[in-house]
Structure formats: structure tokens, C-alpha cells
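User: If you would, consider this record:
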Amino acid sequence: QVQLVESGGGLVQAGGSLRLSCAASGRSFSTYVMGWFRQAPGKEREFVAAVSRYSSTTSYADSVKGRFTISRDNSKNLVYLQMNSLKPEDTAIYYCAADLSARISVETRKYNYWGQGTQVTVSS
């Protein structure tokens, strides 16, 4: 069993930055791919970014490439999402997720464990 707890969300003006953190507990953190997803009101949950088990590979949604950076610290059981140049359309609940498979996936259904989410609101 894996428990995930997100933090770092909040209200920020357009153009600003936020850093989300996700703390993991349970089985060995380095055995799973970590991802960030988001869900805006009235929309389906969508992939944002993912990082492989030992940070050798990352993947980003086209909408956040060049603005967001995912990273992880296996020694601290943490994964981060640095979000820069935020836009109002980035407003959503952001979820951390863990995937026990070996490869990065952008599909929600591939992720085995989810956090409760943290709200990010970007004002124009």
C-alpha cells in the first residue's frame, strides 16, 4: 500500500510560480513511476507530467512543456512539480499518483495509487 499526500497548492497571479510536493509512504518509493495529473471543474482528469523511478526519463503534456518541471528525491520519498509562468487555464486540482510498472505512462488508468489532491488557482 502506498499513501500519497500533496501540498503546495494555492492562489497565484498569472505569470507566477508554485511548487507542489508529494510525500509518499509505504513500500519503497524508488520502485514506482510518479506522475502528476490535474482536473479542472467539468473536465476529465488529465496527465501533466511523470518521472521514471530513478529520474532518467521525464514526460510532459504539451500544454505545460517548458513551464513545468517534475523531479523526485528518492532519499526523501518526495516528488515535486515546479510550475512557472502559470496561466489561468492551469487552474485545477492537482493530483500525485504512483505507478508500479516500469515505464512512464500518460494514462490515468495505469496509476495504482492517488493522493487527495491540492488546489491550484491562477488569477488573471
User: Anything to note?
Assistant: The radius of gyration is 13 Å. The chain has a mean pLDDT of 96.
